[in-house]
Design brief:
By secondary structure, the chain is mostly helical. About 70% of the residues lie in helices and about 5% in strands. A hairpin with a 2-residue loop joins β2 and β3.
């Protein structure tokens, strides 16, 4: 019983930091209608900046709290700069361009962080005043986690009061419900968007700073953060801060208890809950329909007819590729093979996002599932290469069919978010299902290592 209660409290503590990230994402989307794929990067920057700031400050309570706030403010300024320099030019454009732009920012931030702080993880020991623990039915529970548990509802109350009781909050609600009407009434959209983006980025940065004393700052912490935030936002309902808090508690507690009860399925629990919620309530727990602008309902013309010259060039390149095995050496053939794989992957994604009209950021999942399907066919059934190559698309297609039962109910930003979450979950399954896959790539028993 004691261990169960400790895990429950641990889940509530992690839910608070998860709520901060998800709340920032919710606020940004509610006003700007931009799903910020770089939000996990802002979370990561919060952890790294907090490490830099707190490493030089005295280890006293006020200095510690001040350092956390200063890191959050620095990330808020970075978020405002991203909105002014990049996103302001993309408002009113097809949502796919906005998704790709923020995805590009995420990739750039990863490289910048590794260049500035290095590839090694950075740890920050807890200050002495937060190293204490309390007794919970004979089990020791950290004081710092109790602080995080209390911080969650406090931040929820502060955000609700900010949105409902201030003039700025009234403008935010007006823009969330009907952006074009708010603009017609004279609301300064540029200033509102910048301040909203700064608030959302600051919340993500504060979440990253708060996680630092529990673990470390690492260059790989952005993708898990944005994946969990997407799940929370979708389950809670896009645009609902209260829904994000409830979903964060639900996900945090289930993941914490899953470590004890079903350790090999902890990273799939969130997706299972999300699928169940979307089947019962497609807009999430507290989500509601929002007015869409004309630009948001426009389709993105991703396909244009090829010119005769382009078709002729393609035919020539195809003929040269067919003749390559007869004249090219081993190295050239290996490079051409890699190119052919990349072309096939890009063509399949083009088919999905072009004629299919579905924005997918989790397409790599099918690539990986195909690889595992072929490898398992060779390892378990002794299949020859031609047979294994047939197993690969069948395996990926069957898994995609099952995922499609949930994903096909969605469109637009919901679909884009969940495809990325699905890809992360597929990767987690490959790592955790070690009896079948061999686990991590560094494991000598990994089937495709």
């Amino acid at each position: 019983m004691a261990a169960f209660l400790v895990q429950l409290l641990t889940g509530l503590a992690s839910a608070s930091t998860l709520f901060l990230v998800a709340a920032g994402l919710t606020v940004i989307f509610g006003v700007t209608r931009v799903v910020n794929f770089a939000h996990g990067s802002l979370f990561m920057l919060g952890a790294y900046l907090a490490h830099t700031i707190l490493s030089v400050l005295p280890r006293e309570p006020l200095w510690f709290a001040g350092g956390m706030i200063l890191a959050a403010l620095a990330v808020a300024a970075i978020g405002a700069a991203i909105e002014i320099v990049l996103l302001r030019r993309l408002y009113g454009r097809p949502e796919l361009l906005q998704l790709l732009a923020t995805f590009g920012v995420m990739l750039m931030v990863q490289d910048i962080v590794e260049r500035v702080w290095g590839p090694a993880d950075l740890t920050l020991p807890r200050p002495r005043f937060l190293r204490a623990a309390v007794d919970v039915l004979g089990e020791r529970f950290p004081i710092y986690d109790l602080v995080l548990i209390a911080l969650g509802p406090l931040m929820l109350a502060a955000l609700v009061l900010l949105i409902r009781r201030t003039r700025w909050g009234i403008l935010v609600r007006a823009a969330t419900l009907d952006r074009e009407m708010a603009e017609a009434l004279g609301v300064n959209q540029r200033r509102l968007h910048t301040t909203v983006f700064a608030l959302g980025a600051g919340l993500a940065g504060l979440g990253g700073a708060l996680v630092l004393p529990q673990g470390s700052a690492s260059t790989g912490m952005d993708l898990p953060a944005i994946t969990d935030a997407f799940v929370v936002v979708v389950v809670g309902g896009l645009g609902s801060i209260t829904g994000a808090y409830l979903a964060a508690i639900l996900l945090g507690v289930l993941q914490a208890l899953g470590i004890v009860l079903i350790p090999k399925a902890t990273l799939v629990i969130g997706f299972a809950v999300m699928a169940l919620v979307l089947v019962l309530r497609p807009r999430g727990l507290l989500g509601r329909a929002q007015a869409m602008t004309q630009s948001e309902t426009q389709s993105f013309a991703a396909i244009r007819p090829a010119s005769p010259g382009l078709l002729a060039a393609g035919a020539v390149l195809l003929a040269l590729a067919a003749l390559a095995p007869l004249v090219a050496g081993p190295f050239a053939l290996s490079v051409l093979t890699e190119m052919a794989i990349a072309v096939l992957f890009a063509a399949s994604l083009h088919l999905l996002m072009g004629p299919g009209g579905m924005a997918s950021f989790g397409h790599a999942a099918w690539f990986g599932i195909g690889a595992y399907g072929a490898a398992l066919a060779v390892k378990l059934m002794g299949a020859a290469m031609p047979a294994a190559l047939l197993v690969a698309p069948v395996a990926a297609g069957l898994v995609a069919l099952l995922a499609g039962l949930v994903l096909a109910r969605l469109s637009g930003v919901y679909l884009a978010m969940l495809t990325l979450a699905m890809a992360q979950i597929a990767a987690a399954v490959a790592v955790q299902w070690s009896d079948v896959t061999g686990g991590d790539i560094n494991n000598p028993n990994h089937i495709i290592s």
